[in-house]
Amino acid sequence: MTLPELTEDCSRCAALCCLAYPFRAHEDFGLLKDADTPCPNLGPDFRCTIHDDLKLRGFGGCVAYSCAGAGQRVTQELFGGETWRDDPDLLPHMAYALRVLRPIHEALLVLQEAAALPLPVTLQTRCADLAASLCPENPASVRDFEEDSVQNALAALPDFVESLAPFAQGGS
């Protein structure tokens, strides 16, 4: 099974992280911003106009953020390269899709790391099964990622990770 791209590529995204999530100044963001609202620092080219000074301006949360590749997947695969600037009606749908896919991509990163551990066959199989469940074949919409099989795999991840402790470096 081939995993989706799990590294962000902002050049192929429509700055979904800059609109999907709320910002709170006390949470390492330099301003208050509601979810589904573009950041006022976002330029017309989907680039941050203060990117070089994010930390100095109080946007450490932006510096630390990674979508794990979910942003470009939403933009390119689920929305065929269309953007919320091309069609403003897409804004809430694209933002919602990012909020659904990002935890899935983060789970896939964890599973990718787990697969590199010296695990017994039963845990190797469980790892591969969870990863496969998180990757619906030929997804056409965010609904494909909201299916029970995907959500159940996501919910099973914490218990699976806990079972890895004896096999992780430094585990007891």
Short description:
42% of the residues lie in helices and 0% in strands. The chain has helices at residues 17-20, 60-64, 70-78, 91-115, 121-133, 148-163.
- The radius of gyration over CA amounts to 18 Å
Strand-pairing-aware structural class: mainly alpha
Shape label: globular
Low-confidence stretches: none
How would a crystallographer describe the biggest sheet? none
Provide mean pLDDT, rounded.
95
Order of helices and strands: HHHHHH
Helical percentage: 40-55%
Please report which band the strand proportion falls in: under 5%, 5-15%, 15-25%, 25-35%, 35-45% or over 45%: under 5%
Strand element count: 0
**How many helices?**
6
In whole angstroms, how far apart are the ends?
A: 31 Å
- Please give the domain count: 1
